[in-house]
Amino acid sequence: MKELLRTTEEKMQKTLAVLEKDYKSIRVGRANAAVLDRVTIDYYGAPTPIQQMAAVSVPEPRTLMIQPWDASTLKDIEKAILVSDIGINPQNDGRVIRLSFPPLTEERRKEVVKDVRKAAEDNKVAIRNTRRDSIEKLKAMKKSNEITEDDEQNGEKKIQNLTDKYCKEVDELAAAKEKEILEI
To answer: Distance (Å, rounded) from C-alpha 144 to C-alpha 141?
Structure first.
């Protein structure tokens, strides 16, 4: 049963980690290198993240600067940013690419907050699905007489406590991201 609890908690932690990564890539009007995490460039036939091909810096609060280590990849990086879904047009000066983040309008902020809430709810559903699967495994263990009825009930309580803990963490992450978006 300890193994089941450990795997249940690992799955819930992974769900939370995915949400944190998704929230980092949400554009909120400030320059943030995490928006480039999903952008890859075809470099000698292999999809390569921008961070492995260039130095990414934030010279100003609303500007991201990408300086490739190999100048010949400048056009490829620019093209990859244009076809990505980040919604920012790169400015290429021949040596570096600059991404200027426009300030968010009130309407766009509300849309982003809706996306944040939807992502939080989706992750809470994933956590609850993990709970359901784990409780089903507990019941199967009880049915095959691997554990007692008391062990089953204790296991269910522990799984529910994990579920409550991770759902609360998802809510806290979502609240912090909403606050960040609305206060810019």
So the answer is: 5
Q: Which two tokens stand for residue 107?
A: 């309407």
**Residue 44 contacts by C-beta under 8 Å, 6 or more apart in sequence?**
none
pLDDT, one tens digit per residue, over 45-74 is: 888 888 888 898 888 888 889 999 888 888
Global confidence as pTM: 0.69
Q: Kindly report the CA angle at 124 between 183 and 12, in degrees rounded to 5? A: 110
Rounded CA-CA distance 151/41 in Å is 52
Name the CA dihedral angle for 22, 28, 30, 31, rounded to a multiple of 10 degrees: 40
Task: For 29, list phi and psi in degrees, rounded to 5.
Answer: 95, -10
Rg of the chain in Å (alpha carbons): 22
- Order the strands of the 90-92 sheet from edge to edge: 54-60, 63-68, 97-100, 90-92
